[in-house]
Structures are given as structure tokens and as C-alpha cells.
Specification:
The chain has two domains: about 1-30; about 30-185, Immunoglobulin-like (Sandwich). It is built from one helix and 13 strands. It has one helix spanning about 1-25, and strands at about 30-40, 45-50, 50-55, 65-70, 80-85, 95-100, 120, 125, 130-140, 145, 150-160, 165-180, 185. A six-stranded mixed sheet has the order 2-3-12-11-5-8, with no helix packed on it. A five-stranded antiparallel sheet has the order 1-4-9-6-7, with no helix packed on it. It has a two-stranded antiparallel sheet with strand order 10-13.
Length: about 190
């Protein structure tokens, strides 16, 4: 009877340790920016200080498409279910996402092929692989203020890892900005 009780206590303690380890691993799992980005001819890129940037000319209701790669640096696969730009917790996101399309996620570096991209539904990324993502945004119809810059540095990604749902800001590896010829940007 005493031995059976000890076996049950040891099994319960082991199950608890395994469960805590599982939660720690899943909650601590982080995605990262990939090795490359993409933009069409309607944008320019360059270095501002120590940062690389992609800049679009601001025009109300204009569509802009850019590409960002999301890397799974960890040891287990993840399934991405949603990508949002500038996901503002206050509900005021100036970058309105119109479309998100993805390429193949079976390589260790992203290959941007916009013609072969398909709409994002849910995409599995293996360990050490990157997912090329094409994001189309519409610029808001708002007044602009001279000398300011509207930008974002990351995307918000919803994904599942080890069966657990995660919501994470993932750095893009570059700064996405809007500008007008006079230095005006939306406010």
C-alpha cells in the first residue's frame, strides 16, 4: 500500500514537471525576422542611421505591397494563422491590411515569388525555415503633418506551437514608412 502510494506520488510529480516544462517551452517560443524582404518598384529602400528601411510615397487610399520573411528559429514546427501590420491594441491601426499572401516555407531562406503566392489560411513552418509573406496595405485618408514620419518595425503574428496558441510581435528586420514629397505623413 505504501509503495503504491509512493508510485502514484512520483508519477503525479513527474506529470506536473512535464506539464510545466511543456508550458514553459510553448510560452517561451519566439519567431524572428527572416533573412530578406521584398518591395515593388513603387517603393524605395535605403539605410537611415543603422536601420534599413522601405519607404512608400503617401497617397490616401493607395495600396502598397511589401514582403517580409518570418523565421522559425526553434526546434519544432509552428503553424502561422494570421499576420497583421501595426496591430494597435487601442484599435487604431493606421496600416489597414487588405491582403496577406505567402510563398513556400520549405527553405532556410525566403524566396519571394509574388506570382506563386497564395492567400494565407494557415501555413506550417518547419524548424529553421522561413516563410515569405506578401502584405498589401491601404493608406488611410487622413490629414498629413509636415516633417513627421509614419512607420512600423514589426508585424503581429498569430501561430500555434506545440498545440498552444501564441500572439507575438515579430520584428520585420526593416522599417516600413510612409512619406509625402513635402515631408508630410499621415497623422
Amino acid at each position: 500500500m505504501v509503495i503504491a502510494r509512493r508510485v502514484v506520488l512520483i508519477a503525479a510529480a513527474l506529470a506536473f514537471v512535464l506539464f510545466v516544462g511543456y508550458l514553459w517551452a510553448a510560452e517561451g517560443y519566439r519567431l524572428d525576422h527572416g533573412s530578406s524582404s521584398w518591395h515593388g518598384a513603387d517603393a524605395d529602400d535605403g539605410t537611415i542611421g543603422s536601420r534599413t528601411g522601405v519607404r512608400f510615397a503617401f497617397s490616401p487610399n493607395k495600396l502598397a505591397t511589401f514582403g517580409v520573411s518570418i523565421r522559425n528559429p526553434g526546434p519544432v514546427p509552428v503553424t502561422i494563422t494570421r499576420v497583421v501590420v501595426d496591430d494597435d491594441p487601442d484599435g487604431y491601426a493606421i496600416f489597414k491590411v487588405v491582403n496577406v499572401a505567402v510563398g513556400r516555407a520549405d527553405t532556410s531562406t525566403a524566396v519571394f515569388d509574388q506570382a506563386a503566392a497564395t492567400p494565407l489560411r494557415s501555413m506550417r513552418i518547419g524548424p529553421g525555415k522561413e516563410l515569405p509573406v506578401f502584405v498589401t496595405i491601404t493608406m488611410p485618408d487622413v490629414p498629413s503633418v509636415p516633417g513627421e514620419d509614419l512607420y512600423t518595425d514589426d508585424v503581429t503574428v498569430d501561430y500555434e506551437v506545440l498545440g498552444l496558441f501564441r500572439h507575438q510581435l515579430v520584428p520585420m528586420g526593416f522599417r516600413l514608412s510612409l512619406h509625402t514629397p513635402g515631408g508630410d505623413t499621415p497623422r
